[in-house]
## 1
Amino acid sequence: MNLCVLSGKGGTGKTTVSVNLSLLLGYNYIDCDVEEPNGFIFLKPENVMGEDVRIDYPVIDKAKCTLCRKCAEACLFNALVTTKSSVMVFEKLCHACGACAVVCGADAVSYAQRKVGRIEQGISRGIAVKRGVQDVGEYMGVPVIRQLLSRLPEGNNILDCPPGTSCNVVNTIAFADRALIVTEPTAFGLHDMELAVRLLRSRNIPFGVVVNKHSADNTLIQDYCKENRIRLIGTVSYSKEAAVAYSTGRMLTELPLYKKEFEAIALKIGEVR
């Protein structure tokens, strides 16, 4: 079973919930937030091994190219531009779709590869811990996410999604059996949570909600869930103690109050269906 943990926006505590639930449930942890993968900070895996992520990009043979412009016209991502004297290739815009080679009647297009990221995997307290890391300066995280998820560990996995509802998230939840949305009780948190709700419902993925930074006098998210028939899985209390523990890379389940709250959330995961 793959449980995806989403947040409509960054900073809601998605990774905090993901890593603590991974240890409590004994689920493998997969960090799909390839632009800023923070899960390793908390889980501290050992025996980490890695592999590069590489993608194709076109190389134009000037001796064969007739400057017919067909390759540039076929490229939906503006990675190719035909000038009076050559075809310019913008490697970082290329999605490696292969259209340029298909339409080239002069057989002037071949492909080379370039590195866009890295996959790393280790072990932490008996669970597999895996992440994708997008190279600095790269625009596309999807190739890294696809390679990361192409070989998932056996058993149950928690997929720590990228924040928001972008194409990175869409490619991650394609592997979801169930999902959790982690939000905070603010107007911004609610607004972006609604985007995540619409995304999951459009994909018919069952989900529930966890409210992080919860305080008893703020029921903004609870009221929304009740009005929209969304299952509330649990809450994580707001406190300075939690912030201090988080800032030093400690697990919240090391604190008695938070261990109790995460155990309650873990027990309700089965209700998401």
## 2
Amino acid sequence: MDTLLIGPFTQLLPMTNMPLKGALNDGQLKVIEHGGILIFKGKILAVGRFEDLKPKASKIELVTGHAVCMPGLVDAHTHICYAGSRAKDYALRNSGKSYLDIAKAGGGIWDTVTKTRKASKEELITGIVQRATTHLKSGVTTLEVKSGYGLSVEEELKMLRAIKEANDQIPSDLISTCLAAHMQPKDWNGSASEYLEMISENLFPILKSENLSHRIDAFIEESAFSPAAIVPYFKKARAMGFSITVHADQFSTGGSETAIAHNAVSADHLEASTQKEIALLAKSNTIAMALPGASLGLGCGFTPARQVLDAGGALAIASDHNPGSAPMGDLLTQAAILGTFEKLSNAEVLAAITYRAAKALKLDDRGTLQNGKQADFISFPTDNYQEITYHQGQLKPIHVWKNGIKID
């Protein structure tokens, strides 16, 4: 058997033996000194001390200098399939205009819809590949990518096909999500309910037949869809075997309760969530997804991450990389900043961007370093894992491995 041993790493954090839900302290982080990873055909065979694994290896890839290794990062909420820029929106917000005011005046999501509709599929693919490559260099080996800037059957299909084709051109894994319920399109003449019915009847079957996405998302908000209007849409999605995720409680509440009622895998945003919503999420199997990039882009409060964890909820952190509210797109920087403001331990931050984020995508084959998992891992040029969050995203991975192959 042709086995590859990679190491030794000064410290190796496998992120194993920690719960999915609730608060974590750094004492729960397993740290293997002088660790190594034994790999066979892109999968992990064993993780342990480098010297102990040496006899089992037929090949060795030496790591020189100080290096802290951990699982590849998982960004479970992005919108990196788009065209154009919303720099004007950003300037208007910083001049005092609200997100909803800008949207009502023709900016916001609809501005990106207009530009994305004008772009060819090939142009969208180029943009996805460029952005996903930037994420990969920052340690993100798996990232979710939403549609939602097409808002018609034809244009949503263009986006989702672009995501699928882009996935074949890059080492990282792109997990597609259909967000045709991003907002009611301004060129739709019927009601919101009629639009959702049209999408579910005409788009959902094609998603299945072309294997374009297994996930359905919706934005529940004043500028998008009401909790009542989205119920038949989610029921149809569930009946067809799709997983549900929700843009919830960003500016007003109601979305997270809807997410829980439909057994959504995650409720994302939650900046407006109160103790009521936090308690409901903690009792549910729905993962709370914090999107600090949106808070930084909009200048609003953060998801109450500390309260979610203390209540016993599962917390993931994602970048929300999009052209409007979260253009930064740097997951590690955002997670570290959220940790500062919400007083999250290193264990809580790292769990939220590895195994807990993987669970929000229903991916059980990554997020930890252990036997049988994908050999997706990264290393930082330091001898102390605490330096990773201490530098607030400015300490970047020096090496990234995807399926056991080092990405230059």
## 3
Amino acid sequence: MGQRAEEILAQARVVAPLAARRGDDGLLLAKAQGCRVFDADNVAYVDLQGGGGSNLLGYGNQYVLDAVRKASTLGLGSGFHATAEVELGEALREMLPAYGPWVLTSSEVLAWELALRWCRRDTGRNRIIVLDGNRRGAVEAFQVAAAGPHGHSQPLVAGVPAELARLVRVVPWGNLEALDAALSEIGVDVAAVVVDPIASQFGVVPPKPDYLAGLVDRARAAGARVILDETLTGFRLARGGAAEVYGISADVVVFGGALGGGMSQLGAVTWAHGLGATIGDDLPAPPQPIAVLAASATLSVLRNDAVHQRLEERGAQLQAGVEALAERFGRHLRCNRVGSIFTCFFSRQALTDGKSFARVDQPTWTRFARGARETGVLLPSRSPSAAFLSHAHGVKDVEHALLGMEQALRRMQKEDEL
């Protein structure tokens, strides 16, 4: 880290402690372009964090920038529903014809609140079932953890009311028998079963064949709605997201992440056409026009089949390279991947559920991630965490990232020999 970056980080520790914490783990961003981010000393890093999944096309994508410039010239203010929302709605309907209507929100959290309230109103029930691998984000209802042998929930963080936690049941990822048991006990009061299709709380866990379909069937048999979390996978794994990749259908789908084009926060909720869903009176404030226009630009790029083909090829290249490095250095370095979403971690066993997640070697990962950062490769500071490639990552960029990982492993090997 250079002098200017150190000075800003020291200042942040006084005036912006959360920024300082993130800066210690990664970097304080000064600018970004393509698949690279830069610190205050103009040091470049190949970015594998991907803006938490939002950076699908690459930083500063020309189509998205043009849309943002257009928004700035129109003088669109907040507080109004813009004509651009109608255009985006048409594009979404074209891309996902099985769903509608659409409600756009200014954040993923608002989209989740709307989806959960609708399910409770629609079913007349109160309880929610989530999986222990579900992405929590900033949704208060998801900040719970299973307590005791019966899976009853308790608040995961201070400030979440115990009464709220009791309305949520946590079920182990990948375990249909546990889901059957929960539905048998409380199924008559379950409004929705929420599923993150890649268990991103554990980084990335590809679902076993028929697991997601079995979950959907059981939830519907119990009279509960199925909410599919596409905030990371939507539009990234395929134009139809995880639903297309795994051949499942949901009653309600929540989108975010890549939909905003990496420029601004944007959430969306949609319903299966067959439900005939109507929107209640609990409507959120309109999204920012700049986010809506960026989303339209993103979807226009995704009409090209070559985008997802390129993402898959680069993901396969990275995974093969990581596995080759693990073998070469005799390390228990593993890589789980679905498309352009991946997680790397050190563990003697495969990552398949919450138990294997708890056995991952975090101290070794911390050494590795810091070593890679010193070579110009930015990995998540914690493991397993979801990491991302973008359309801007080329063959040479992935090779650069693998070379940085190799150098980090070589340094670790030398340190261990001392």
## 4
Amino acid sequence: MRQFKNMAYPYMIWISVMIVVPMLMIIMYAFTKHGNDVATFWFTFENFSYFFSDIIFINVLKQSLYIAVVTTLICIVLGYPAAYIMANSKEKNKVLLMLLITFPTWINMLVRTYAWMGILQDNGILHNILTSLGLEIKLLHTDFAVILGMVYNFIPFMILQIYTSLTKMDKSLLEAASDLGADKVQCFLRVTFPLSLPGVISGITLVFLPAMSSFFIPKLLGGGQYVLIGNVIESQFLTAGNWNFGSAISLIMAVIIMISMYITKKIESKNGIEKGRTAN
């Protein structure tokens, strides 16, 4: 037992240095401002009041929530059927489908986003196809481009989570439902879908959170016209040099993320309790 504890020490040191210390620094900067002397700080809530009192930042937060929610819903609508098909495929086909879904993730996300810029730009592949069909539609630097980039980059996380839940499901429950007279639709609605909800909830967490805080996808595919909360944080740290305000926004985002995770955890726990009651 002591040997396992000793093996955990390097990991604990790594977590402390790379996660705990930076988080403490963000909290310190968020609640402080530079004093008259550059080396001194004084405690204040000014950074938070400035954020919530400025309608521009509130609108950016709303836009970020909108993009994240739409991205998550699209990932569920497209990802669930894909995961369902994978889970019910033959073993050799499962390997191929898994490879097709995970292969894009082997390439850096930034490179994949740049590729979409080439596809969506004027005189790009997709634009030329639509033009040949008589459709003159601007694709790049639009909401469509930003959401498309988000969905493309994050949908594998949704598919894999749902697929894992579906493969772990006890198939005998479907047989029992069929024996009791349930058709395929009823089996799906009453058995398959409820049992796959933990995967859906995990997928929502893995898609919604990065979509909410992403900054380079809207920056590249939105052309700087679609500023999300991640872009504001980036600009405060790298351009404006206002680490205090940037840390305050980061802390606000962290609180929103923790609330979202708490809600999803509550829903998952409630679903687990209801499944237990049903089983009894």
